[in-house]
Amino acid sequence: MDKLNVNTIEPEGATTTLNVGISGKNVTITDNLKANTLKDAGGNTIFTSDGSGNLSSVNSGFGSAQVLLSTQTASGSASVEFTSGIDGTYKEYVFDFTSMYSSVDGGQINFQVSTDGGSSYGVTATTTVFQALHTESDSVATLTYRTAYDLAQSTSDQNFFFDVGNAADMGSGGILHLFNPASTTYVKNFYAEGSLASSHPAAKNVFVAGYFNTTSALDAIIFRPASGTISGKIKMYGMK
Predict the structure, then answer these.
(1) Residue 182 and residue 180: Cα distance in Å, rounded?
(2) pTM of the model
(3) Which of 126, 167, 182, 236 could form a disulfide with 88 if both were Cys (CB 3.0 to 4.6 A apart)?
């Protein structure tokens, strides 16, 4: 039988449990099981679908450990800001960067945070930065600490992607982890890792780590170039 079309499948008799298959045996659905609402034995909704793959009413016990909170796309933009959604709901926030470009060849893409919803940026930070680099010509292959890009109790922007190429076969991508930004007791640790095709031309792997030295809650973050504009997509996730 290729298909069984029914409106309702119910257990026989007074029981409220419908058993499929023999006890101790696995039942495999090899094609499709279509349902708009899936509930457990207690009648609790696990999820509801709109028929197009979009889910709602997802039960918290079934939810993802990583929740997409916001997506922003830059196109020749002076900056990208996330000024909402950063609060005590999650202990870790993750920013995912895809196809990031600078309008300036060899440009820099930086970030800073705010304690006042983005009205001002410039929280004191101490950081460390190193990189691995390998040129296309195979003439240079290095692992280097980059003193010029670290911060020592500075309110300057922290550089993340540096020496980003702006040619069609260049660009960058990476990820930034920010921990417990809503804490009013501890400093705010973070680390970031990026991969880019730089203007040498070369492949570069960049590592940044440090902390924002404040016990005030962080509630906004900005990404902006040292000069020129940036393009690309940035997604913000909350981690349970």
Answers:
(1) 6
(2) 0.75
(3) 182
Quickly tell me which residue has 């930070």 as its tokens.
125
What pLDDT, in 10s, does the model give residues 141-160?
999 999 999 999 999 999 99
Sign of CA dihedral 56, 86, 91, 189: positive
pLDDT at position 238 over 90: yes
- The CATH fold of domain 66-239: Jelly Rolls (2.60.120)
Report the pLDDT averaged over residues 34-61: 70
Q: How far is CA 109 from CA 72, 178, 222, in A?
A: 15, 17, 10
| Residue 76, SS3 per DSSP | strand
Highest mean pLDDT, choosing among 16-30, 164-178, 214-228: 214-228
Give the H or E element holding residue 6: none
**Using omega within 30 degrees of 0 as the cis cutoff, is the peptide bond preceding 11 cis?**
no
- Alpha carbon dihedral 155, 219, 192, 152, in 10-degree steps, equals 20
Residues of the chain with CATH 2.60.120: 66-239
Q: Which residues contact 18 (CB under 8 A, 6 or more apart)?
A: 9, 10, 11
